[in-house]
Amino acid sequence: MVDVVLGAFYGDEGKGKIIDCLASNSDYVVRFSGGNNAGHTIEADGHKFAFHLIPSGILYKKAKAILGNGVVIDPKVLIEEIENLKSSGYPVNNLYISDKAHLILPYHIELDEMYESIRKNKIGTTKRGIGPAYCDKYERCGIRMEDFVGPNFKELLRENIKNKNIILKAYGYSECDFESIYNEYKGYAKVLKKYVCDTTSMLHKAIKDNKKILCEGAQATLLDIDFGSYPYVTSSNPTIGGVSTGSGIGAKYIGNVYGVIKAYSSRVGEGPYVTELNNEIGDKIRELGHEYGTTTKRPRRCGWLDIVALNYSIMLNGLTGIAINHLDTIGKLDKIKLCVAYEYKGKVEKYFNTNQKFLENSKPIYEEFEGNFGDISNCKTYEELPEKAKKYIERIEELTDTKVKFIGTGAGRENIIVR
Ligand code: GDP
Ligand code: IMO
Ligand code: MG
Asked: Where a domain ends, among 173, 192, 211?
């Protein structure tokens, strides 16, 4: 069976930590969507690792790490990540990159900045070139890994740069220089060539051999290009469908689908956010939870946990279990609120809807819980948690009809309860 870990909200729920926990028993860990807009943190072995492209499971030397066809790859960033891991004592000899994954090139990054600057309603992208790279994929002019490491790279690059320069020039942006980009990037192609292969057939063989596969979601459900709060979303499908299209694994092989949440919520970038706390409690959560972007260092917007949005995520992804992080953080507050419904146009609404007007005009309806859990970082079993903490968890289970399978009690690898 293939297990999947997905972000259930707006990203940064602590997916890296849950992947790290499950990867110890996995033969393969697969990224299937997004690119280095992701930042997945793992605190282990005295190090703080921040993964942007390489699957977080790589810390377990037994697991083969795969970048699937649905991922967009900035080769410069990938090589930096490989080098950083090597210098921390991880040899990276178990990395495989799909021949069908698309490249992010310097003009994608420039275009990302350009489009963001001319947009009336800013999205707040990570400016990593993600949107423009996916645009090229769908426009069918993108450059895939197999092209990058093969003989066609030079001509494909020349053609793309010629076309992108027309747009960049029209908006007064500096044009890309083909010769210098080609000379730099052919060096990266040489370094990455040995990792490029047909990862789909590799995964099919692994399924036949009963190997354990873990799919690592990046971004999150409410940032999904189809099901998220469009247009304030990313340009891929971080939801369950993305697993199949971004790796080539058929739906019937998928087993557990874990949705990761925090005991509160956060969002980075623009867009509606019903339970946002634009006040001192939001500021307090940000400081207690160290809520600053792993990738862009931006302060994250913080708020209460939203059951209306969580139930949407459960239905969309067919979540079989919930992983909840930062129970320790929320337990430092005196009082905790949980959004159980919205008030929209004077009526109680329990169904989430990504319509912008609906989200902007919905008001959260809260239930209140006791905080002050004390130090829970050493609790190893659910039973050891204080009653107040259990009450909060059990109410979430009741409202979602879904079991909480993992509970994060601190940032470290060891601070986790598995039920
Ligand atoms: P991801 O993108 O979903 O992998 O999440 P990020 O790594 O961007 O952000 C999650 C942050 O919360 C990281 O700094 C983690 O080290 C931290 N973290 C994860 N789980 C817990 C937890 O249970 N408690 C605390 N205090 N920190 C956590
Ligand atoms: P992980 O995997 C949080 C957000 C950006 C912006 C929007 C579009 O660490 O959870 P993009 O650069 O993708 O075009 O930006 O999506 N975003 C994330 N927010 N966590 C992420 O990844 C994100 N990846 C993209 O802030 O609002
Ligand atoms: Mg992150």
From this structure: 192
